[in-house]
């Protein structure tokens, strides 16, 4: 079994129905929760769980954790579901030890994937686009599973090896120019699929933050230091300190996490914030440590909009609220508004395409129940007749969309519906 208990789901569906007053939204929620996880999760003989990233036959560290968020909300009452989720975590931790720079992995060491990329590939690796958030998600998943379930087997022998690899990589990438051997080039017709300077990426100067080659969209960073990725890293380094001290009794690991978190926090404060003439002091999306910055947001998580969900900042924090106003305005070059929807899109998809993930994040980070309801209704009405979320859809014509079925987006819709019903992941 890889799905959710029927009674647990039935109770949640009724809660969503009462909160929204909308049987269509409740029906979409029920279908997604019942079908999404069984469609992508496979229990393996070793007790781990392999999770497909929707319509791609590989397991992304990021997506496989993000797809679980609504199930985490409900797993406290479902021990069999807990087993599935713990199995996902344990497979993620094994993958990190194989190659912490990889973002996506194969079910077995069969050499499938992007084998022509110029980087240090392994037969286990589907894709080796290094993204800082790929290493954040498994640590967050470990922390949440441990807190929610209280089960000792969540943090097993795999965790320390993976956490140590993450810390080492993040410290190396604080000074990418001097310390890193990571290179990546892909020779196709998408400039965002490769790094400039023979695979090294644009020149950067140290900031205290940790460098990332690619964004959560799998598009190359422009300026190297992705601020929302570092926000997420800061939060999970806090989780790592707690696990190290309370579960592992490893003061050395906790101290390393604490030191790195302080450096990243300082880097965000000194380099990741800028003064805007209209909105005041706001967070930048990316910086290079040499004065350049990008004021924008991308639809994928972690984003600047999702900073409260990442655990970095409260949803009512003044700097976050100022940044939010900028992001949900034409000042964000990837904010689109049309007759069917208005929201954040991505350079990863065509212009004028809004992402359901970003809409769900907008609702989840709002302090207004009315706004959450409005976002749910927009998501209900923009499936192009499929009843499912897509990667992106056209702001004037939702029948034009990318990806027929996008498991992560379905999960974000479900998480928003649960949050509107008062069921959220613990802070």
TrEMBL record:
Pfam families named among the record's database cross-references: Glyco_hydro_125 (PF06824)
Superkingdom of the organism of origin: Bacteria
Coiled-coil ranges per UniProt: none
InterPro entries xrefs: 6-hairpin_glycosidase_sf, 6hp_glycosidase-like_sf, GH125
A biological-process GO annotation: carbohydrate metabolic process
Annotated protein name in UniProt: Metal-independent alpha-mannosidase
């Amino acid at each position: 079994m890889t799905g959710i208990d029927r009674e647990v789901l039935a109770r949640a569906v009724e809660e969503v129905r009462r909160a929204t007053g909308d049987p269509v939204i409740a029906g979409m929620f029920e279908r997604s929760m019942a079908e999404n996880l069984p469609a992508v999760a496979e229990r393996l003989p070793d007790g781990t769980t392999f999770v497909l990233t929707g319509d791609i036959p590989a397991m992304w560290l990021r997506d496989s954790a993000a797809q679980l968020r609504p199930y985490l909300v409900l797993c406290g009452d479902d021990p069999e579901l807990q087993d599935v989720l713990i199995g996902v975590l344990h497979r993620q931790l094994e993958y990190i030890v194989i190659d912490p720079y990889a973002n996506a992995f194969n079910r077995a060491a069969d050499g499938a994937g992007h084998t022509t990329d110029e980087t240090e590939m392994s037969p286990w690796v589907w894709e080796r686009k290094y993204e800082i958030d790929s290493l954040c998600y498994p640590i967050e998943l470990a922390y949440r599973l441990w807190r929610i379930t209280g089960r000792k087997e969540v943090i097993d022998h795999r965790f320390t090896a993976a956490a140590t690899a993450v810390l080492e990589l993040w410290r190396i990438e604080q000074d990418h120019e001097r310390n890193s051997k990571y290179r990546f080039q892909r020779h196709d017709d998408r400039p965002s699929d490769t790094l400039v300077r023979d695979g090294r990426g644009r020149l950067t100067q140290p900031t205290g933050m940790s460098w990332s080659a690619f964004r959560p969209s799998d598009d190359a960073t422009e300026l190297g230091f992705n601020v929302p990725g570092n926000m997420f890293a800061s939060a999970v380094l806090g989780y790592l300190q707690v696990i190290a001290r309370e579960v592992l009794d490893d003061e050395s690991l906790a101290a390393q996490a604490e030191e790195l978190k302080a450096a990243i926090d300082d880097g965000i404060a000194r380099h990741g914030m800028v003064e805007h003439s209209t909105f005041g002091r706001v967070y930048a999306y990316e910086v290079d440590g040499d004065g350049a910055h990008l004021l924008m947001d991308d639809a994928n998580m972690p984003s600047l909009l999702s900073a409260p969900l990442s655990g970095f900042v409260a949803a009512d924090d003044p700097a976050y609220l100022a940044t939010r106003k900028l992001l949900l305005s034409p000042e964000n070059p990837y904010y689109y508004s049309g007759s069917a929807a208005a929201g954040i899109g991505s350079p990863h998809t065509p212009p004028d395409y809004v992402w359901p993930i970003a809409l769900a994040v907008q609702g989840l980070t709002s302090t207004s129940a009315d706004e959450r309801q409005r976002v749910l209704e927009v998501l209900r009405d923009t499936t192009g007749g499929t009843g499912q979320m897509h990667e992106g859809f056209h702001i004037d014509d939702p029948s034009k969309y990318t990806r027929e079925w996008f498991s992560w987006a379905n999960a974000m819709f479900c998480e928003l519906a649960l949050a509107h019903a008062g069921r959220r992941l613990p802070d």
